[in-house]
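User: Structure with G3I, tokens only please.
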Amino acid sequence: MKTKLTVVFAFAAVLLMLSSCAQKTPKTYAAKYGFKTGVSVAIGDLYNEDYIKIIKENSSIVVAENCMKWANLRPNKTFWNWTDVDKLVEFAESNKIAVKWHTLFWHNQNPGFISSFKSREQALETMDEHITTIMSRYKGRISEYDVVNEMFNEDGTMRETVWYKSIGPDYIEHALIKARETDPNAKLFLNEYNNEEQGNKKADAMYNFVKDLVDRGIPIDGVGFQLHLATIYPYNEAAVRSNIRRYADLGLQVSFSEVDVRMPVPSSESDRQTQMNTYCSLAKLAKEEPNVTSFITWGFTDKQSWIPSTFPGYGEALLYDKDLKKKPVYEAFVKELAK
Ligand code: G3I
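Assistant:
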């Protein structure tokens, strides 16, 4: 009897230990506040067990770093490379992780066959075909979409993409309407960078644009703040918070959709501290503002980040170092979420 009881207690203790370990990840803390955490995934990550472990530990949502973009998915009019997307979606499903589509329309990473259109009609037709093919295929499996990515210039004017030039500024509402019609349950986002602080030209232009969509009943669920930040630029928590709140007043969600905080490398103690403060401030905002629904970092390890090749002399922007070790900023981020 005594032995049996000891076994039962030991088993209970192990279960307790396991459950308390399981709770100590960003995604489990975030779940208590009603938002998801996650990372962007490069398809190669899914062939590396160490990367898979990190993705699973940190993600209740994942987003594709590249494989859902036009050039990767649909390099020509008739060939669709579903293999990589299916692999990511199946990986996520088997680990009960949500998937965000990035991105249906963007000015970058496009194949040659959509560099120009003969008419507005032809552009609209191509747009509809892209939306319905993707969203019908993954209906009920992709929970949210970046419908259009990076549609503004820094001065708040609209970026003259191929869609803008061929269709006009209403290309965005056309895409949103078609997307809602195709999968009514998917959450629809417009995603941007440098749009997080109220008072910034681009951020205000985007807010006014989105408010007008909402006022006219165009379907939209939220806005993505990419948050590719740098320690050398000022960061204003109050301005980010008031921006989040004005979207809440419109009934919209905000996704922290591509977070990283780069700094000059090799990094100084002072930059590392600034980076930590920024990650913690964003964690605090995500906890405190109910309409923030996700906190996604753009990658997870400094080994793979897009930063060093795009901003030479900068790096160390993420929460894991080049050896896949959690950095002090990771621990500070988790501590902030746990408070
Ligand atoms: O896969 C090819 C490889 O075969 C080829 O040899 C090599 C030569 O350049 O290019 C490889 O493709 C690169 C791809 O990343 C995969 O590594 C592309 O050139 C390169 O342009 C592409 O960069 C991506 C960039 O978007 C443009 O699509 C970055 O990985 C990705 O992190 C970045 O992500 C964007 C978001 O989508 C939107 N917000 C900003 C963010 C950072 O720029």
